[in-house]
Amino acid sequence: MNAEDLRLDLYVIDLFHNKMIRVDANDIGIADKYQNLKLTSIPYAPIELTKDWFEKFQFEMNYQNQKFQIGNFIASKSPNGWKIYYQYGDKQIYLDIEIKYVHELQNVFRFLMKYELSELAA
Question: Which of 10, 13, 25 minimizes the C-alpha distance to 104?
Fold first, then answer.
């Protein structure tokens, strides 16, 4: 995982301690240190995005079409991960984004919805 992928409040696996963490300012400092040393990866790994994470983040499940939704933000399971849609009126706009990891969901959600998913899971 690259240092530029990290920002505050993202969920990742701390490979040194083999546990899930929520990134804080101290973790960003570690990431910056590794990036400055020109290492290609840091001691964190992404967390695979599963239905359990959508439930943790309080998404509503639409059982009819197997989609998870909060407001206008929609995620739908695909063979390679999760497709992201945005509801605009009565239309769903596919954003040509497929994600596989929790931090990717958090980043895309923040960009589109202008608030953090981590606030919902706290």
Answer: 10
Residue 12, CB-side half-sphere exposure with 13 Å CA sphere:
26
Whole-model pTM?
0.76
pLDDT tens digits along 19-28: 888 877 565 5
Q: Quick one: three-class SS letters along 57-103?
A: CCCEEECCCCEEEECCEEEEEECCEEEEEEEECCEEEEEEEEECEHH
Taking only the tens place, the pLDDT of each residue in 106-120 is 999 999 999 888 666
Give residue 89's identity as a one-letter amino acid code: G
Count Cβ atoms below 10 Å from residue 92 Cβ, excluding itself.
16
